[in-house]
Fold this protein.
Amino acid sequence: MKYSAVPDTGCLSRTELIARITYHSLKAFRALLCTMLLCGTPLLQAEITLIPEKKIPLPLVSATELDPLTTSDIHKRYPKGFRIFTNNITPLLRKKLNRLANENYPIQYVQPDSSELRKITISVIQHDGFSHFLVKALGEKPGCAPLLSQEMTDYGTRKNNHPMIKKISKLPTLTTKDLKSLLQSHHWWVNIGFESYQNAPEAVTQWLHQKGYDNTKLISAGLKDCSVTLSKDQLEAFSELTAMSYLNNAVRGLFYSKQGSSLTHFRTLAVESLNKPDSKAH
């Protein structure tokens, strides 16, 4: 006798036959389904999973950009919060950030990628645009250029998070030793991937020395527009510090650009100066 999985249908109509077969097929499937569930077997090899929404990181913002802003300005510019490097935060900015944190405003403190910053630094000194940058920055406005009256005063002379002078007119009060000491341990070194002058490779320190020396005339002319005159040694030391400012702005500018972050004015100028055909002219 032959056996069949399909029940004996006798003389059934086509419709009745299909209904009978469908009924028994569904019954067998339900039995299989119950067995799989009891054993914990996945129903399908390619089971459907919910793909989590991709998290967009908070924008990376520089302390330099936030320094002049009020907490209200920061809220408006970055309504969803931001990331910021732990270094270079002034006491005043720290107070603002603490105030924002107390309001449950999202702030993430991160460490800079020193390896990436060092690579960018080497690239910048290989595509020198310092002279082009100086011509542009010193000629932006009639009279004393903001590069000297603001950038080099507020940030260039900063030591232990406080500027050593509050006005560019006080620059002559800083001795050559003061200016060299600033360069040796400036917070800008961390910005370009190194701990200090002593930890930087010779290629970087030589570049600073050479570029500072080569551009003393341009910087001296800019200082005269601020009614400031320095001795030869002071001028060379200050010029080297100005070259360090440029390097910091160019490196940080490129780094923040890669993150899709907005740039401060002098970082924009520094990045734009790279690879300029006339940047070698003095």
Remarks:
- The longest strand covers residues 82-85.
